[in-house]
């Protein structure tokens, strides 16, 4: 089995996870969660988003969250920016990293952000250009890379085309999201092969949801093709409003356990990560989804 010797773990729980939880945490609580995650050794942690509070109330006051974090050194804290209004707010908050979202499914794009794929790029080009002018790094996300809740299967070539456009717009990395968690290892590899025909594999990340229990298998499959960045959510936080019974992002603890079992370096400490997951779940009054967290015994 040939996989990268080192994997960069990108923690998406404080944004992609919490925005899909029913209970909303206060800015102070969100900061406490992020600091625990950073203490585990994670160096890339999504801190929030600058979207309308009426649409995503869980992400309200992201500026207050950022004000309590050290943005000048240590971990990086990207925030989601959907348009120039969001970018202006992010810029005022002093961010160093932002993320933009596109979709490989036309119907999903229209229903999720109320515009076509082509129209979404008109927004992203403007945001990316402004980010470049202000020395801000941009990460790109592609939704529905292995299936769409409205269109069903998604052509891997369509995924590759969107990923290439995001790279051309100035994104340093593209996170490929199995939004509804319907992918399987063979389909995941087929998608990666299509994308790497247009985008270097070192610029790709895997962002897989675990609706059908396939996320770890899919991650291993794309690691075998050279993908060395993995998005995950502590305690398996979140869900997906587009898939009935969706389990949300693959749990960070479960990803780390798999990687440690293959002697893959991450720089992340399991005990501290498990503690962070249990801490946020206590705040949310829920059990962790992470199987490792549920099985973990304190030493």
Q: Give the end-to-end Cα distance, rounded to a whole number of Å.
A: 31 Å
CATH arch. level architecture: Alpha-Beta Barrel
What string gives the helices and strands in order? EHHEEHEHEHHEHEHEHEHHH
Strand content: 5-15%
Low-pLDDT ranges: none
CATH fold group: TIM Barrel
Averaging pLDDT over every residue, what do you get? 94
CATH class call:
Alpha Beta
Key descriptive features of the protein:
12 helices, TIM Barrel, 3-stranded parallel β-sheet, alpha/beta, 41% helix
Describe what you observe in this structure.
The protein has 299 residues and is α/β, with parallel strands linked by helices. The protein has one domain: Aldolase class I (TIM Barrel). It contains twelve helices and nine strands. The protein has helices at residues 13-17, 27-39, 62-67, 84-92, 106-113, 117-133, 156-169, 185-195, 215-223, 252-261, 270-284, 291-295; strands spanning 8-11, 44-45, 48-49, 79-80, 97-103, 137-143, 173-178, 204-208, 229-232. Strands 3-4-5-6-7-8 form a six-stranded parallel β-sheet. Helix 10 (252-261) packs antiparallel against helix 11 (270-284). The model has no long low-confidence stretch (mean pLDDT 94).
């Amino acid at each position: 089995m040939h996989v990268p010797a080192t994997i960069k773990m990108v923690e998406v729980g404080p944004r992609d996870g919490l925005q899909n939880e029913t209970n909303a945490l206060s800015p102070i609580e969100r900061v406490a969660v992020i600091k625990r995650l950073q203490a585990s050794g994670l160096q890339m942690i999504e801190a929030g988003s600058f979207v309308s509070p009426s649409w995503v109330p869980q992400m309200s006051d992201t500026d207050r969250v950022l004000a309590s974090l050290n943005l000048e050194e240590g971990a990086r804290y990207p925030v989601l920016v959907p348009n120039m209004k969001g970018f202006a707010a992010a810029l005022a908050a002093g961010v160093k990293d932002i993320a933009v979202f596109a979709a490989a499914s036309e119907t999903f794009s229209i229903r999720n952000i109320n515009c076509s794929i082509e129209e979404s790029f008109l927004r992203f080009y403007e945001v990316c250009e402004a980010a470049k002018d202000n020395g801000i790094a941009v990460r790109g996300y592609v939704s529905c890379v292995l299936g769409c809740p409205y269109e069903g299967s998604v052509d891997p070539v369509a995924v590759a085309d969107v990923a290439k456009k995001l790279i051309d717009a100035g994104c340093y990395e593209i996170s490929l999201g199995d939004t509804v968690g319907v992918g399987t290892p063979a389909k995941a590899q087929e998608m990666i092969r299509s994308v790497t025909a247009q985008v270097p594999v070192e610029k790709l990340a895997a962002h897989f949801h675990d609706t059908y229990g396939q996320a770890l298998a899919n991650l291993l499959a794309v690691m075998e093709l050279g993908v060395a960045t993995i998005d995950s959510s502590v305690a398996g936080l979140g869900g997906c409003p587009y898939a009935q019974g969706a389990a949300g992002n693959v749990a960070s603890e479960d990803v780390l356990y798999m990687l440690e079992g293959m002697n893959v370096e991450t720089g992340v400490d399991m005990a501290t990560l498990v503690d962070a997951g249990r801490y946020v779940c206590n705040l949310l009054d829920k059990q962790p989804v992470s199987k490792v967290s549920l099985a973990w015994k304190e030493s």
